[in-house]
Amino acid sequence: MSSAVTEIKTAPAGVEPTVDPNVVRAAIALRRRTMAKRIVMGVFTPIFFLAIWEVLSRVGVLDREYIPPPSEVFRGMGAGIKDGSLTEAVAHNGWISIQRLVPGFALGLVVGLVAGIAMGILDLVRFGLRPIISATFPIPKIAIFPILIIIFGIGDTSKIVVVALAVFYMVCINTASGIEYSNRIYREVATAFQVPKRVEYLRVIIPSALPSIMTGVRLGVGNALIVLVSAEFVSAQAGIGYYIWNAWQVLDINAMFGGLIVIALFGILTNWCLLALERRLIPWSQS
Predict the structure, then answer these.
(1) What are the residues whose beta carbons fall under 8 Å from the beta carbon of 149, sequence distance 6 or more?
(2) What digits encode the pLDDT tens for the residues 254-269?
(3) How many Cα atoms occupy the beta-carbon half-sphere of 283 within 13 Å?
(4) What is residue 9's DSSP assignment?
(5) How far is residue 268 from each of residues 39, 129, 166, 198, measured CA to CA in Å?
(6) Segment 129-154, tens digit of pLDDT
(7) What is the CATH number of domain 76-285?
(8) How far apart are CA 211 and CA 208, in angstroms?
């Protein structure tokens, strides 16, 4: 597509330059071929790994009693969907998990953004919080879940807080890094034009850090799902994590894989939504 730029015909002052229609058509065709390749790879790769799983399970490398081939899993899930048992159980437990995930994610996102922006802009805040974050970040969040149960009880509050912690670190670290390492040229230009500091931060520095911030948000969603399911394994009477663990205990393999597939689909859906939001917020970062 870069060749399209070089084909712009020079024109006298005051006259709009023209672009060769053949170059435009070639650029559009190239873009379509690129998108087609991405779609094919996006579809082919999961099918390829499912085929490997099918073969390994059928030849005995994987124990079919505990890891049946995908064809059997999908057949069992289809029967559960047909009689409504799987659909009802997954919908009920999935909705309960969403009620824990959304407020936890929102809380971690807001606090992480505020702390990350403060660390990126203010040296004192950065030097004060960085040692604490560096020391506590490596601790598995599920490892401090028992402490949260003692403080907040065994109900949903402790699960919301542990999700918020998982999101906070991802968002805070990426936000602070994005602001701290934003393009120096932008700052120099703003200083040269004597732009007020408030405007510089709001219109120059923070927007330039948006790609890093959105990366932290996407990582936060994945981390939130991992931590929430882990918490529901050990302390819940409902939720998608409880559903998966209970299915494993009674060796209902189809139900267990059904719960795992629901989590995977939710992760894909949220990632697509965040990528669409990223394209709207920061179109200049797209290739």
Answers:
(1) 158, 235
(2) 788 888 888 888 888 9
(3) 1
(4) B
(5) 14, 33, 19, 37
(6) 999 999 999 998 888 898 999 999 88
(7) 1.10.3720.10
(8) 7
